[in-house]
Specification:
This protein is of the alpha/beta class. It contains 16 helices and eleven strands. The chain has a five-stranded parallel β-sheet with strand order 5-4-3-6-9, with helices on both faces. It has a two-stranded antiparallel sheet with strand order 1-2. A two-stranded antiparallel sheet has the order 7-8.
Length: 418
């Protein structure tokens, strides 16, 4: 993802062999020898480093051409004593469990398979008293709303559903799309912050998320601890910070927003979190996490229902299906990095030994470049944009080292199949 603190006008074009390379991506495109991810995948999400422009970092490959995410899975499958890790979780729960009628942990999630599994295990296996918190999707799908309701009612969980100012959220989504080709950034920022935010508000010292992003390609060193970093914040010179590709002062002066409108999207001061004694943990550190197994778990416990049809851009039916904006998030990663939704899903299933690499290549070939039509009209209305403008914006973000025109159509220069 394009970092939020960078002025989009400062994106550099590096030219090699007369072909421009955007975003600091590797000039040579390589695909993992074990899964199907490419070295164009950014290895970190949004960072808040006040007034600092950092080079784009991408997923690491070793000398054998194997990506970090695959090596994380190798470690997960062969080098971790999961019984010992589970004892660590039990010890942690024993330390923080309350019996005075107050919440003792917070689980952040949508009510999808991962948050269902995390919250269920904490409550019914370890006798914790979780408060679940949810940052609302841009636009709920029927499936997303249904599994959210099942999570709360059939699962038996208290929940706070936080829905940001709709007018502001639409504007920020449009700006994020126009400036960064990242329509999901407003949701990502809110979802990452909401756990610690309500932990402070309710005086709850323990926050849980599901799996670590390192399982998808973030830095492998992130797996050495259960704790999630809370080090990024907006700094002192708030008005000079870039967010959604726009300077905060311009959001206030040109778009009529107030600072309070942006508060839900900004990380808390890490000093405040540390002072309150709040820790944010990944359940995937303590329990061997498998997305497909989490799906089966959610079906069994709360009657989780997958999409009634294949999700556009991929072959699966149960991953990231709660928001009508989801498909466009994955489509924009295809435009910027040459990596579509089927690549993400197939890579994860190869790592977890659900499918072979050959099967993954075939699935990517069939589905990865499919455009999501189902919610397209609603998404355009949401961001107040015409179809023509939508594609004109997207085309500006195609890096020439990834895309070329052939017969008046955009074609990827590099694909995982030969």
């Amino acid at each position: 993802m394009v970092t939020s603190n960078v002025d989009p006008k400062e994106y550099k074009e590096e030219k090699t062999d007369n072909v421009s390379v955007l975003y600091g991506l590797p000039r040579e495109v390589k695909f993992c020898k074990r899964c199907v991810i490419s070295n164009q995948r950014p290895n970190s999400a949004v960072e808040f480093k006040h007034n600092i422009k950092t080079k784009k970092e991408t997923i690491n490959f070793d000398e054998d051409g194997v990506c970090d995410a695959c090596k994380v899975t190798d470690k997960k499958n062969h080098n971790i004593d999961w019984k010992k890790r589970e004892k660590e979780l039990k010890k942690l729960c024993d330390k923080y469990r309350r019996t005075d009628g107050r919440y003792d942990c917070i689980v952040s999630g949508s009510g999808g398979k991962d948050s269902i599994m995390a919250s269920w295990i904490l409550k019914y296996k370890y006798d914790m008293h979780p408060l679940t918190v949810t940052w609302a999707p841009h636009m709920y799908t029927p499936y997303g709303w249904n599994y959210f309701i099942n999570w709360v009612h059939k699962g038996g969980f208290d929940n706070i559903l936080f829905t940001p100012n709709g007018k502001v959220h639409r504007l920020l989504t449009k700006l994020a799309y126009t400036n960064l080709l990242h329509p999901f950034q407003p949701f990502i920022l809110g979802q990452k912050n909401i756990g610690a935010c309500f932990a402070l508000k309710y005086g709850v010292p323990l926050v849980f998320y599901g799996e670590n992003e390192a399982e998808y390609g973030n830095p492998i060193q992130d797996t050495v601890t259960a704790l999630r970093s809370q080090k990024y914040h907006c700094g002192e010179n708030f008005n000079d910070m870039f967010i959604f590709g726009v300077k905060v002062s311009d959001l206030i002066e040109k778009h009529g927003l107030e600072r309070v409108d942006l508060v839900p999207y900004l990380p808390l001061d890490p000093n405040e979190i540390e002072k309150a004694g709040i820790q944010v943990h990944y359940m995937g550190y303590y329990i061997k996490w498998d997305p497909q197994e989490a799906y089966y778990f959610a079906v069994d416990k709360v009657d989780f229902q997958a999409n009634d049809q294949r999700t556009e851009g991929t072959y699966s039916k149960y991953n990231s299906i709660d928001d009508k904006t989801d498909p466009f998030h994955y489509w924009t990663t295809l435009i910027k990095f040459g990596i579509g939704r089927a690549t993400y899903d197939a890579s994860q299933e190869v790592r977890n030994e659900k499918i072979t690499r050959e099967e993954a290549v075939a699935l990517v070939k069939k589905f990865d470049e499919e455009f999501p039509k189902r919610y397209f009209k609603e998404f355009l209305e949401y961001i107040d944009m015409s179809e023509k403008e939508f594609f004109e914006v997207a085309d500006k973000f195609r890096s020439p080292h990834l895309w070329k025109k052939a017969n008046d159509k955009w074609v990827l220069r590099h694909r995982v199949w030969k």
